[in-house]
Amino acid sequence: MNSQTQEFTLSGSAGPLECRLDKPENSPRGIALIAHPHPLYGGTMDNKVVQTLARAFIAVGYLSVRMNFRGVGQSGGTHDAGLGETDDMALLHAHMSAQYPELPIALAGFSFGTFVQSQLQQRLTALEKPAQRLVLVGCAAGKWAMPTVPSDTLLIHGEHDDTIPLSDVLDWARPQDLPVIVIPGADHFFHRKLHHIKQLVIDYWHP
């Protein structure tokens, strides 16, 4: 993404995990772990929505960390329906926590990545170490058994998402009394609407 980008590899239970760290210009004030969409449908850490989330977090002074899930790019193993992927994201969380124990960690995901991150948040909450905040874009409600999430979760969805219908997201959010920010005219991949995602994240961190 820029000269501040670093590549590194973690040893996951199913093989190596290809990771990328982008640093802000100044001393980081937090860490954002970003999860990409479904590996079996072309999802990678280079997905445009994932890159947009990374840029947004860099803009608010966060370290932005992405990984390729199992079987994607240089990451070993095969797709594990979100279970192994959550294990791998937990490993990345532990790694970054050890590197920067003083910094808060936010979790962000797009599509399938929202399932992974909400699962991870559930695990961290059980350990009494919940992430600072969640950002869920194109939330996978209706496609995956999305757990409940904290009330301050930032939910962003496209009005014309035909992969994950907005109605499914509203049905999931309604019992939790969760607001959903709808981008008018946006499809699942937010073509020509990515700037809205970036600005919403920036505004959420700098109200």
* CATH architecture identity: 3-Layer(aba) Sandwich
N-end to C-end Cα span:
26 Å
Give the full name of the CATH homologous superfamily: Alpha/Beta hydrolase fold, catalytic domain
Query: Which of globular, elongated, flat, extended, rod-shaped describes the shape?
Result: globular
CATH topology, anyone? Rossmann fold
Q: How would you characterize the largest beta sheet? A: 8 strands, mixed
Question: Explain this structure to me?
Answer:
- The protein has 207 residues and is α/β, with parallel strands linked by helices.
- The chain has one domain (5-205): Rossmann fold (3-Layer(aba) Sandwich).
- The chain has helices at 48-59, 83-99, 112-126, 166-173, 194-205; strands spanning 5-12, 15-22, 30-35, 62-67, 105-110, 134-137, 154-158, 181-183.
- An 8-stranded mixed sheet has the order 1-2-4-3-5-6-7-8, sandwiched between helices.
- The two termini are 26 Å apart.
